[in-house]
Amino acid sequence: MLTRRSLLKRSTILSLVPTVPGFLSRTALAVRPERDGRILVVVQLEGGNDGINTVVPFGDEDYARHRRVLRIPTDRVCKLTDAIGLHPAMRPAADMIQDGRLTIVQGVGYPNPDRSHFRSTAIWQTARLDDPGPESHGWLGLALDGIAAGHRAGEPMGPSAVFIGERDVPRALLGRRAVTASFADPADLALAIPATAARSPERPNGDDLSSFVQRTVMNAYTTAEQFADTAGRTGSTTARYPDCKLGRQLELVTRSIKAGAPARVYYTIQSSYDTHTLQLPSHAQLLGDFTRSILAFQDDLAAAGLADRVLLLAFSEFGRPPAENGSHGTDHGTAGPVFLAGTKVKPGLIGETPRLGDLVDGDLKWSIDFRRVYATLLDRWLGVPAEAVLGQRFEPLSMLQG
Questions:
Q1: What are the backbone dihedrals phi and psi of residue 113, each rounded to the nearest 5 degrees, phi first?
Q2: Residue 188 and residue 184: Cα distance in Å, rounded?
Q3: 168: burial class by Cβ within 10 Å (0-12, 13-18, 19+)?
Q4: Rounded to an integer, what distance in angstroms lies between the CA atom of residue 59 and that of residue 83?
Q5: Looking at the DSSP assignment, which residues form a beta bridge with residue 339?
Q6: By the 8 A CB rule, do 376 and 129 touch?
Q7: β-strand partners of 400
Q8: Could you give the domains of the chain?
Q9: How far is CA 174 from CA 2, 156, 312, in A?
């Protein structure tokens, strides 16, 4: 017997209705997030960013000892203090700190760190340290479930989260009822949407399976129309986005926000941080693309009068150890920095800079549990009780104004 539960478990709406646009990764219950609410944009630095050569402890005498090949010369570091600075490719980030739009949380990790990409990513995305199974919900998905709970049946709706990327929706966005849209490129939105389905004046009612499927299909069409319309509005901007994938993705996020899209969370991924070999040139390129992209993003939002509504979070699943390897690269590590960009941050450095002479098993000691970052964002930005999402209370960090 085909039940609603088995339907959702076995297939997505895409298999039921072939004409539903392919960028809709999952659709469940209707959601209508506030169009003027606060927005969180997440950038995952996938692969394990080398935090030591990102936030450079040039004043630590052990830095040169550990990094003979990969050491950033002191005269090239973008100095923030007399002992700490940023990678030279991150000059825009140093400028953002100076003008009050960037904070960096240092030494972020979790107890008993795991150096597996898959396992550590699952921990960061679910905020669970026990073994998160494949069906585990994400921390953002659960948060958006709480926001979606206020939706009234029959109201127009839209996705509460958007993933811009070429892969499956990150587990962080998976919830029980919140809708997530996913697409890789604006061209994905230029798909034929049957007018009779998309603009039907009647919305099916009832709790039977047929009505549920019809509502889900109609919700998918509505979402497709909203984002096809959004993608077509280029708007005016003086921001200069870099010619890289992350820059193009963040530009699309800004266009969506300007167009009044209802999503409260946007998520994208900048990959290739797994720098085991020849790290110096590739890492410099990655950090340069990242910082120039978030600077253009912030400038674009400011020009549109939207900067106070949007906060950007950037994290990596783990850092890299102090010691370089024999291939002019670094291997999997533990703690690393987390970035927050926006007009509502308290700019500068938060937390202690990991000391390279005080290690555990040859790796950095973490000092701030990443769930404290999440708790701060949930309670003080998205307005969702953090304890309900994280399963326990974590002390918020003093990283946001107000």
A1: -60, 145
A2: 7
A3: exposed
A4: 4
A5: 104, 314
A6: no
A7: 345
A8: 25-177+226-390 (3.40.720)
A9: 23, 21, 19
Q: Which of 333, 247, 310 is closest to 54 using CA atoms?
A: 333
237 and 202 Cβ atoms separated by less than 8 Å: no
**Placement of tokens 């098993």 in the chain:** 361
Structure tokens at 232: 């077509």
Write out the H or E segment, with its range, that includes residue 110. Answer: none
Strands (E), 80-205: 85-86, 102-109, 161-164, 180-183
Confirm if 106 and 352 have CB atoms less than 8 A apart: yes
Profile the chain (402 residues) by mean pLDDT over runs of 10 residues. Answer: 36 31 34 68 98 98 97 98 98 97 98 96 95 81 81 58 92 89 70 43 52 53 57 64 96 92 95 98 98 98 97 98 98 98 98 96 97 98 96 97 84
Residues 17, 33: Cα–Cα separation, whole Å: 25
As to burial, measured by CB atoms within 10 angstroms (0-12 exposed, 13-18 middle, 19+ buried), residue 375 is: buried
| Whole-structure pTM value | 0.85
